[in-house]
Design a protein that fits this description.
The chain is about 25% helix and about 30% strand. About 0% of the residues have low confidence. It has six helices and 17 strands. Strand 7 and strand 8 form a beta hairpin. The protein folds into three domains: about 35 residues, no CATH class; about 300 residues, no CATH class; about 60 residues.
Length: about 425
């Protein structure tokens, strides 16, 4: 018996009858392969790369230059609202045509810090830009992740990072003197990091008991006289606060120090341009691993905290108890963007430290080793005056009690003040190298 072959364009479908095969027109494909661009110089066929200086594609072999094609859109960059219809439409658009980087790329997967980094096709690096480990795997970058809609191009050149980081490394007296020499040999890798931006308005009604200090007279029966004292009187207050949040940034990566990323928030989103694969030519990039829903939870919590502070700031004094707030969000929208960052790692006394530079503003964030000998000497100098003054005052307690009591009081104040400065210094030193 000859096997039946369905006509072209038909595919088998489930049949309710045993032994009966059914065929129906095959559905149209719901996705399409992402457009992939090959960055080759039209003159010499060498690989071109994005040029930070003039913002286009440039060939380092023959000098060919291709100017940028995307105008700055800034605050006019399209944002998606948090509505069922808009979210559905955005998801459908992403499923159909907004996947991948738009260019053939490689992916570097670090086995040490687990970071995944997208490399330009032909990239030869075998070292993780975030931890310096050479335990990496390289394979073709997946083209199934949501494509960013906008980005801020690099404005700071890599060679400028040498100067700003060297100055930053030597800006604290707590760091070793030889630390500035590290920046001269450090390699700064340009990488686009994923971020979510959120816009929203908040409106909050609040109420709380607010404490007011008042002076009252009372009769001291033991001294048989009238005296005055300060008491706190609690009164209920209420108010209404509104806050507008414009492009609140939430990192889309969980593989990097969130403390370091928080210190690089000074991006000017007025420089946003529509995403084009050309901007990533010769550059590294990361795809997001923090999904939109989780990022929005983080963003909402930060908005909630800032609105709470605005409400508390309306109280007539800073003494507040039994605070409550009713908060509403409105006009909520989001974007998925890439932001420029230079990343470098360096080793000092067998310890690895990370430094990041804002690729738009030149702002520095990172870890620095601490010269603990300097720190402990400084802490000792802060508490020594109080200790010495306390020891000096002891003989006066026996010889001249009133003067001794005064000196003990001064010594106690000096010791408390020195201890507070010493504790603050110790905290700063500990945080400097561990973030």
């Amino acid at each position: 018996m000859t096997q039946y072959l369905p006509p072209p364009g038909f595919a088998p479908v489930p049949s309710a009858l045993s032994g009966i095969e059914l065929y129906a027109p095959a559905p149209e494909p719901t996705t399409r392969e992402p457009d992939v661009i090959d960055f080759k110089c039209p003159q010499c066929r060498a690989t071109t790369a994005y040029c930070v200086t003039d913002g286009g594609l440039r060939c380092v072999h023959c000098g060919y230059y291709e100017p940028p094609t995307q105008p700055v859109v800034g605050k006019g960059a399209e944002a998606f609202e948090f509505t069922v219809e808009t979210m559905t439409a955005a998801a459908e658009a992403a499923r159909l045509q907004a996947h991948g980087w738009g260019a053939a790329r490689k992916e570097l997967q670090c086995q040490n810090c687990r970071a995944r980094t997208s490399l330009a096709e032909g990239g030869l690096t075998h070292t993780c830009p975030f931890c310096g480990s050479n335990k990496v795997l390289q394979h073709d970058a997946p083209q199934d992740e949501l494509r960013p809609r906008f980005l801020i191009p690099f404005k700071i050149e890599a060679r400028a990072c040498q100067t700003v980081v060297r100055d930053w490394l030597g800006s604290s007296w707590m760091t070793p003197k030889a630390l500035q020499e590290i920046a001269r040999v450090a390699r700064f890798n340009p990488i686009y990091l994923p971020y979510w931006t959120f816009d929203a308005n908040t409106a909050a009604d609040w109420e709380a008991e607010v404490g007011h200090e008042e002076t009252e007279r009372y009769y001291d029966s033991s001294a048989k006289e009238w005296r005055t004292r300060t008491v706190t009187v609690w009164r209920w207050e209420s108010g209404h606060a509104r806050q507008h949040f414009d492009d609140l940034l939430v990192p889309g990566t969980s593989r990097l120090s969130q403390v370091l990323l928080d210190r690089l928030r000074s991006f000017d989103t007025r420089a946003l341009v529509a995403y084009e694969p050309q901007f990533l030519a010769g550059m590294m990039a990361q795809a997001y691993d923090v999904p939109l829903e989780r990022a929005w939870e983080i963003g909402r919590e930060r908005m909630r905290e800032q609105t709470r502070e605005a409400c508390r700031g309306q109280a007539s004094t800073s003494k507040i108890r039994n605070f409550s707030m009713q908060l509403d969000f409105s006009d909520e929208s989001w974007r998925y963007v890439l932001l420029p960052v230079y990343v470098s790692v360096y080793t000092y006394e067998d310890e690895t430290y990370q430094v990041m530079v804002n690729g738009q503003t030149g702002e520095v964030s990172g870890q620095r080793p601490v010269d603990w000998t300097k720190v402990w000497l400084a802490i000792a100098a802060m508490v020594t005056p109080g200790v010495l003054l306390g020891l000096v005052s002891l003989p006066f307690l026996l010889l001249f009690l009133p003067l001794g009591l005064i000196l003990i009081g001064v010594a106690f104040i000096a010791l408390v003040a020195g201890g507070m400065f010493a504790f603050s210094t110790f905290q700063k030193a500990r945080e400097m190298g561990h973030v």
